[in-house]
Design goal:
The protein is α/β, with parallel strands linked by helices. It is 32% helix and 22% strand. β3, α3 and β4 form a beta-alpha-beta unit.
């Protein structure tokens, strides 16, 4: 079954285009703006050779840029690999190598460690969020803002429901951290609560009021606090979403 979790954002954008979704200081971003900005990021990622099944590591704190990257990555069919912003260079290097990431997105406060970790990996493209405009980086290190320059084509890669959407690493308390894979359908199930018990008493094909809870109740026990932002943001995405029987299969 073809299904890309990024379609959840597209449906929400169509239903509530001007509704406020997230904030950064005095700036507010609506559903439609998030859909467009993540679409620009997606177009830029495609132009840089990132496509279906490729891994993109994202090391960001609780900022809207995490959402821009998150849905941009999913829109090209790639796999999001969230990294803890507090990781040191050797840990960053280890997780990037083991997941085989093609691109790294990090934050200005994490950039020093991220750049050191990325330096061990040939050909890894790295983008820094909120870096000073006049910042000088080593070769291969760029401003994240460059990913906004492309046009949003509105394209969402038609991934399979059982394709991996996100890989989250365990804390590594009993050994090296291990990546746990979550599929697009698992993300959908988690965020819509579309389990059989949640659908009990619902008429087939009816519209149900649902709260989009985000990036995985399934991963909630093993991810770091940056996902609390994504979850809290998406918990406000109350939309009427059609849940036909075939989405349960």
């Amino acid at each position: 079954m073809s299904f890309n979790f990024a379609n959840i954002l597209r449906e929400s954008s169509n239903a509530h285009p001007h509704k406020a979704l997230c904030h950064l200081g005095e700036h507010t971003f609506s559903y439609a703006q998030l859909d467009e900005i993540s679409g620009r990021v997606a177009t830029s990622l495609r132009a840089r050779g990132v496509g279906r099944g490729d891994k993109v590591a994202v090391q960001l704190p609780n900022v809207p840029h995490f959402l821009f990257a998150y849905f941009g990555i999913l829109k090209v069919g790639a796999v999001l690999v969230p990294l803890d912003p507090q990781l040191r260079a050797p840990e960053i290097c280890y997780q990037i190598i083991t997941c085989d990431a093609r691109l790294l997105i990090t934050f200005e406060s994490s950039a020093e460690q991220a750049v050191r970790g990325a330096a061990e990996i040939d050909g890894l493209q790295t983008y820094v969020v909120k870096a000073p405009i006049d910042a000088r980086f080593p070769a291969g290190i760029n401003h994240f803002d460059e990913l906004y320059l492309a046009q949003d084509t509105k394209e969402i890669e038609p991934t399979d429901a059982d394709d991996t959407a996100v890989i989250v690493y365990t804390s590594g308390t009993t050994g090296k951290p291990k990546g746990a894979e979550l599929t697009h359908f698992q993300m959908y199930i988690s965020c819509t609560g579309a389990m059989e018990e949640a659908l009990a008493g619902q008429e087939e094909g009816s519209l149900r009021r649902t709260t989009i809870s985000a990036a995985v109740d399934l991963a909630d026990r093993i991810v770091t606090n940056q996902y609390e932002f994504l979850r809290s943001v998406l918990q406000n995405m109350e939309n009427a979403i059609e849940t036909p029987r075939d989405k349960q299969k």
